[in-house]
Amino acid sequence: MARFTSLHEAFTRTDRRRLARALSPRSSGHIYRRMAAVLAIADGERLEDVARRLRVTRRAVYRWVTRYLARRDPRDLVDKARSGRPRHRGPSTPQLRRLLATDPRTLGYQNATWTAPLLAAHCARHGHGAVDARTIRRRLHELGYRWTRPRYRYAHRAAHLSQKKGLSAVA
């Protein structure tokens, strides 16, 4: 690309119309922002002002402009597909259901009920991958589980307890 004293000199009237047509409120936010930035440069705004208004670096705006000017196609401002780190979802649904059906005390824990942090620690310790407690909570919610405070009950209720408390014989 040839160097211009001002970036907006590289744009033609056709480029401005093409960008204005492509600037649609239906497009995603970051694509809309890129097209708006390139259109602002095409209309003669300074690179620094556009970058400050959009709260991005000048280098980012310059890259968007050069990417557009390479082929003069607004679709070039859309992100290309790229690989990334695959999401690790932790234990599968059947594994999670099996784990919730077991008593944590049988696995060596001191808790009588499962908590999200305890489940997360157990998953990390036993090869299900490191999973955050918030992810465990979300997965449990998706499976229909609800958190309730455990209610403790006497295993053997004394027959004369109602007389001690002053309650009726029915309680």
Describe the structure.
The chain is mainly alpha-helical and 171 residues long. It has 2 domains: 7-77, no CATH class; 93-142, no CATH class. The chain contains 8 helices and no strands. The chain is elongated, with a radius of gyration of 31 Å. The model has no long low-confidence stretch (mean pLDDT 82).
Gyration radius, in Å: 31 Å
Please outline the major beta sheet: none
Question: How many strands appear in the DSSP assignment?
Answer: 0
**Count of individual domains:** 2
H/E topology pattern: HHHHHHHH
Which structural class do you get from the secondary structure elements? mainly alpha
Mean pLDDT: 82
Q: What is the secondary structure topology, with strand pairs?
A:
Layout: H1 13-22, H2 29-42, H3 47-54, H4 58-71, H5 93-101, H6 116-125, H7 133-142, H8 161-165
Helix pairs in contact: 1-2, 2-3, 2-4, 3-4, 6-7
Describe this structure in a few short sentences.
By secondary structure, the chain is mainly α. It has helices spanning 13-22, 29-42, 47-54, 58-71, 93-101, 116-125, 133-142, 161-165.
Which features does this protein show?
8 helices; elongated
